[in-house]
Amino acid sequence: MLFILTHLLHLFPLGAAILAFASPVFDRHLSLQGERANASGGISVNLFTSLERLSRLVDITYCVGTSGIRQPFSCISRCKDFPSLELVMTWSTGVLLSDSCGYVAIDHGASPPIGELYNTPPGTGKGNTKAHHGAIIVAFRGTYSITNAVIDLSTVPQKYVPYPPEDDEYGLPPTEPEHICTNCTVHMGFLLSWQIARRTVLPELKRLHEQYPHYPIHVVGHSLGGAVGTLAALEMKVIIGWERIIVTTFGEPRIGNTGFVEYLDTAFRLQDEGIDPEQRVYRRITHVDDPVPLLPLSEWGYRSHAGEFFISRSGLPPKPSDIWPCIGDYDPYCIAGSDGEETDLVEKPTLEHPPSDANTLSSGIWHIPARFKLWGLLFAHRDYFWRLGLCIPGGDPIDWGRDRYPATTTNDEL
C-alpha cells in the first residue's frame, strides 16, 4: 500500500497542480454535454471494444522502467490478456522530463479483426486484397509528472521541421514531404522525447515493416506518450511514407500551434467530411474531467487538433453510449467546451513568452479557466476505460474485482 501511495504522489506532484473554481463557462459546458448525449447514440460496440483493448495495451507500458516486460509477452500487469502478442523490444531513455518509455510488439492474429478499419484504413490510397490479420504495436508510456513536463518545458516552443536532416543515420529521405508544415511550432519537451526515442525505435520498426509490409502499425500512447506517439506517427506516415498507420491516444496534451494542428489534420484527413468518424485512422480519446488535453494553455499559443472521441461519463466504467465522436478541432460538446476557448481567444492575447514555472502559473497573474481540477490530474487523467498507470497485478486497485468489458470476439485482436 505504501508503494501505491508513493507512486500516486510521484505521478502528479501536488506542487504543480492547478486549483479549480466555478465558472459559467463550465456550467454551459455541462448543458451542451446534455444536448449531445440526447442527440448521440454513442459509438459502436466494435469500436468501443477496440478502444478498451488499446487502453490495456497502454497500461502495460507502465511496466517499462519498473518491473519490466519479458518475452514472449509477460509482465505482472495485463500482459496475460494478450496471448497472441510477441514482445519485440522495450526502450527507456532516462528519468528526466524528456524521457521516453515504451515497447514494440507484434500480433500475428488468430482470427479476423473487428471492423474494416483494421484491414484497410480509409484514405490510405491502397487496399489490401489479401486478408492479413496481424499488427505491429508501438506503445508509448506517459510521464510520471505530466504537469511538470507541460509547464517546465513549454517556455520556448520549438520550430517543427517535419523531415530529417540530410545526414539522417537511418537512411530516410532528406527531401521535404508532400505536406508542408507552415509556421509550425511544437512543445520542446515532446519533440525532444521523440528525437531521443527515434534512435532506438525507428530501426526496429523499419525491420518489422520490411518483414510484415501488410501489417498496420498501431501507435498508442497515454498522456505524454500520446504526444510523443503523435510525433512518431507523423514521421512514419508523412516522412517515411508508411501508409497503414493507426493512432490512438488517451489524455493527449496539446502538442503545437495552429500551423502544426492544420498540418496534422491534413496528414491524417481529420477534417474530411466524407469519412465516417469511426473509420478515422487517428483517435484522440479525452475524458470529461481530465484537464490535460487542455494543456498547455491556449494563451501560450497551443491548440487542440481534430480526431477527438469524448468520454462524457465521470466514473468508471464507461459504456458505448457515454462516448461520442467530436467535430473539428474545437467541438463545444466535447472537451473544448469546458475551456471557454472562443472567449479566451478573443479576450486573451497569445503570450509571446509563456510562464516557465508552476508558481507563476498559479499565482493569479495568468488567466486560469475552470478546466483545471486537482483531482482531475490525480485520477480522471488516468481513467480511460480502466485506471491506468500502475504496473501491479490486476492493474490499479480501483479495478480489482471489476468485471471485464463484454467481448464480441474470442481473441484480443485490435
In which range does the helix fraction lie?
Answer: 25-40%
How would you state the average pLDDT, rounded?
77
In sequence order, what are the helices and strands, one letter per element? HHHEEEHEEHEHEHEEEHHHEE
Query: Could you list the spans in which at least 5 consecutive residues all have pLDDT below 50?
Result: 1-32, 111-131, 343-349, 356-368, 409-413
CATH superfamily: Alpha/Beta hydrolase fold, catalytic domain
Total number of strands: 12
- The name of the CATH architecture is 3-Layer(aba) Sandwich
Q: What is the CATH topology?
A: Rossmann fold
Return the structural class: alpha/beta
How many domains is the backbone divided into? 1
Fold and architecture overview:
Helices cover 28% and strands 13% of the residues. Helix 7 (258-267) links the parallel strand 7 and strand 8 (282-287). It is globular. It has one domain (2-399): Alpha/Beta hydrolase fold, catalytic domain (Rossmann fold, 3-Layer(aba) Sandwich). The two termini are 33 Å apart. The chain is α/β, with parallel strands linked by helices and 414 residues long. The longest helix has 24 residues, at 188-211. It has an 8-stranded mixed sheet, sandwiched between helices. A two-stranded antiparallel sheet has the order 4-5. Mean pLDDT is 77; it is low at 1-32, 111-131, 343-349, 356-368 and 409-413. Helix 5 crosses helix 6 (224-240). It is built from 10 helices and 12 strands.
